[in-house]
């Protein structure tokens, strides 16, 4: 069994909601690390602000200054110096505007303007509207990356393609739907 297949199976075995929140976060980090490092630097897990008030799930440093790859492009376009990743593994409740706003608040100028919300289900309409408002007000981009996206990225890596293509595609789709 390939590493990618093993990771897909682990993701499929993850229960939704509170029973699987830590498992979803752990397997999500394992997948993103496998897919994106390098060219991104290995993630800083659970970093806290100095005061300890804010705790982000993970941050992938992007040191691709001047690189001719997707991450160099995102660093230039969105000042995506640190790629914020927040995990949401919900069961019955919706992933809504409050979760998007929480992610927004974790993005600051030194980090840049790109966050990935890795979700086990599609966020509701209020989440989509909120991220559009955030982009219009702050220029911050929050992309929803589903478990299905993660699996597709694993297939891409197996085919020798760049999994970051999916992230750039998601960014372009976000720009197209933004109003």
Descriptive overview:
With 179 residues, the protein is α/β, with parallel strands linked by helices. Helices cover 47% and strands 14% of the residues. The chain has seven helices and five strands; from the N terminus they run H-H-E-E-H-E-H-E-H-E-H-H. A five-stranded mixed β-sheet has the order 1-2-3-4-5. Helix 4 links the parallel strand 3 and strand 4. Helix 1 packs antiparallel against helix 2 and helix 1 runs antiparallel to helix 6. The longest helix is centred in the first third of the chain and has 16 residues. The model has no long low-confidence stretch (mean pLDDT 94).
Short description:
The protein is of the alpha/beta class.
| Elements, N to C (H/E) | HHEEHEHEHEHH
**Quick check: average pLDDT?**
94
Largest sheet: 5 strands, mixed
SS elements, strand count: 5
Percent range of helical residues = 40-55%
Q: Which sequence of strands runs across the widest sheet?
A: 1-2-3-4-5
Give me the secondary-structure category. alpha/beta
* Multimeric organization: single chain
Distance between the termini: 44 Å
Instruction: Please state the CA-atom Rg, rounded to the nearest Å.
Output: 15 Å
| Shape assignment | globular
Please report the number of helical segments: 7
List the helices and strands and how they pair.
Elements: H1 3-12, H2 21-36, E1 44-45, E2 58-61, H3 70-78, E3 82-88, H4 97-106, E4 114-119, H5 125-138, E5 141-146, H6 147-158, H7 164-177
Parallel strand pairs: 3-4, 4-5
Antiparallel strand pairs: 1-2, 2-3
